[in-house]
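pipeline/complex-builder :: batch 7 item 3
reading input block
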Amino acid sequence: MIATWAQIGYLISAVCFIVALKALSSPRSARTGNLLGAAGAALAVVITFVAYKPDHLVPILIALLIGTVAGVVGSRRVQMTHMPQLVALFNGVGGGAAALVALIELGEVRDGQTIAAIATAFTILVGAISFSGSVVTFAKLQELMTTRPVTFPGLPVLFVAGLLGGIALSAWLVSDPRVWVGVLLCLVGLAVGVMLVLPVGGADVPIVISLLNAFTGLTVAAGGYVLGNSLLLIAGTLVGAAGTLLTKLMADAMGRSVFNILFGAVRGGSTLGAGTASERPVISGGAEDVAILLGYAQRVIIVPGYGLAVAQAQHTLRDLVEELQGRGVKVDYAIHPVAGRMPGHMNVLLAEAQVPYDQLREMDEINGDFKSADVALVVGANDVVNPAARNSPSAPIYGMPILNADEAQRVIFLKRSMRPGFAGIENELLYDPRTTLLFGDARDSLTKLLAAVKNV
Amino acid sequence: MTETIALLTIFVLAAFVGVEVISKVSSTLHTPLMSGANAIHGVILVGAIIVTGQADSALVVAVGLLAVVLATVNMVGGFVVTDRMLQMFRGPAGRKKELHK
């Protein structure tokens, strides 16, 4: 048992975390909330050093320094477009750390401490799942491997076998806490984590990150139970509960169920789309043609997507919008909840380009406006305006709410190529006679467009 | 057994708090919120320090130190990257201030 003052200090940290989460759910207070969370975490670490007086102080401090440098450098250097995979990676190492802590604690679990033993087994298994799952997620988002669902015959059998094996090993561990059983459990967890994420398609990966985030939270909570540390228990449970709800909110925004996302491909659904560019005719135009459409429109709705972010074209887009507004065109940005690679990602990217909030309109708010829009300008987006989500029940994105760009008088796509979107399916809207395509890198196209609009 | 019940009580109550505090979040903030929550579970660092500090064998110390490094990356990196995301969310007022400088 540690000193009372330390317990109270931990309680203050826990309150910091609760207030931080609360503040993070409102734009006004979010940044303060995050800083408060960081302060709570720093306080907890200082208390731990003073209250537990750990041996091996110098090596621990060196390890802290290494971790801090790696964390700061990683998060400062990363481009905003690559942020989702960084979050996945941070989540994975957290899960890994929890599993390692539990493995060490295994030596301390005595006979008769059944609940502690169960919590230890849980932490090892789920921490390992979270670690390897996050690594696969990272590889998918970084496009180190295919973003398509990966399945092979026997994967479901192997997955269930792995899961049952994990449960059996956990039971063994509870009755007889031996370290080598724990190591075996950890290995099984790693394999299960890989098999859990492999069949998930690229577009659904963000939801998996959120789910694994909740998993890691729960492992930290279980670790807190094992160590009898109330702070870890509270913080882990908070993240586990909030993460689970967040996962559901994200899945709802895509019109999918979490179960379907995880196991859709395994059940032999048609998650694999056409995938290749087809040879059907499309109407493509030059920047001047498109500039005329835009310059003489009264109402333009812009649908930004990941392609915009990859080309780092947010600023050019804002310049174009300002030019159009100067000509009296009413322009809004229609933000799909999952535009970019994560819910809210596009808001972050456009805010970076200093696009005013009030021009960013959420899907439900703007979907009725497309009917009265002269032009829908789709910049580097694809799946979020794909009518297949509405019309073709066999499409993997069927049921996902989309932006009704197809209801606008004219649709303009700025695209690099005819390559299908992240979900790997074809978009009928590209072949619509009202659609004009402007091929090229989003930034080049927008720069040309801007010049052309000025001359119209 | 009372300690078990106390911990269980904390667990259940914290679960409700966790759901409650984020139930009204707009989709705009899903990403920073996930990232912030991700940083918070980096407090497993506390656990990593405790077990490493009590370790006797060199192997256990090594594993513990690895856990310390990983947990620190999670915690520090998580908070820093969340702050970077949220820097972008300045309101119009904050942006004007910037322009005046």
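note: Confidence is low (pLDDT under 50) at residues 92-101 of chain B.
queue -> next item
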